Amino acid sequence: MLFIDANAVNRFIVLLAGFVVVSHMSSLPVEDDSMKSATFTSLESVFTNKRINTDLIAEFTNIMKIACMGECLSDLNCDSVGYHSGQKKCRLHDVIVSGSGGVTESGWEYYSMQEDFCSQENFVHNRILDICYYIPPGSHTCPDAIAICSNFSANLLTVDSQAKQDWTHDLCVSENIDGTFFDAFLDSHLSVWKLGKTGMELTYTYWDGGEPDNFGHCIGTKPYHGWEWHDYPVEWTAGIICEIRRP
Predict the structure, then answer these.
(1) What are the pLDDT digits (tens) for 110-128?
(2) Which end of the chain has fewer CB atoms at under 10 Å, N or C?
């Protein structure tokens, strides 16, 4: 059953059939059966009497607002919802919809979704990989990159699957990032690379031929190495992708 923390709502709270129906609020906490929780923030300042038709992934009819938001929370592709209270229509979108475009139609309300473990400002939630990430500006050495991410209560990116490697490559290309370092370290015996956050040995790697060669103590990926992994000296620089994982 979906529920809302009523303490977060200022007014107009009505209990009905096991749901809490809320209106006239700027944000709305929601939790689903899997105990995931998220906050839906009103986009009222961006939208006025518009129905957005782009990036639509699903549409539901005869549905309450809280159930609409629950559908978004349950769908890993959903990042925002549109709801029409008069028509009881729900529309799920796979991006945080912007104010551009749309068809004039009164009655639509739009909300962006952010899962509660991803509450840091400027961090973006990739729901497929279930991580929150932020790209600080500039290129930095590996030790500086670790410190910068730590300032956000985050770690350097961990790449532990081919899907994560592919996503990292695509993100670096699309955001024009000159590669990035990973959250990994060489153990004290200089023999085994381990994940920085857990200390576990790497279970997935994407080493270039002849790597690692113990040339450096920082794992990273750069375009001129075909995005395959190298161990780099600590004075080399690269872009940064900070990551927060679900507890």
Answers:
(1) 998 887 788 788 888 888 8
(2) C
- What the block records as the tokens of 212 is 């690692």
From edge to edge, which strands make up the β-sheet containing 155-156?
124-126, 131-134, 242-245, 155-156
Identify the CATH number of the domain defined by range 6-115.
3.50.4.10
- Domain residue ranges of the chain, discontinuous segments joined by +: 6-115, 124-245
pTM over 0.90: no
Res. 14: pLDDT tops 60: no
Per residue in 150-183, is it b (16+ CB within 10 Å) or e — as a string?
Answer: eebebbbbbbbeeebbebbbebbeeeebebbbbb
- Give CA–CA dist 179/139, Å, rounded: 9
Q: What is the C-alpha to C-alpha distance for residues 202 and 180, in angstroms, rounded to an integer?
A: 17
Structure tokens at 29: 């906490």
Question: Is 124-245 a domain of CATH 3.10.100.10?
Answer: yes
* Omega within 30 of 0 (cis) for the link into 212: yes
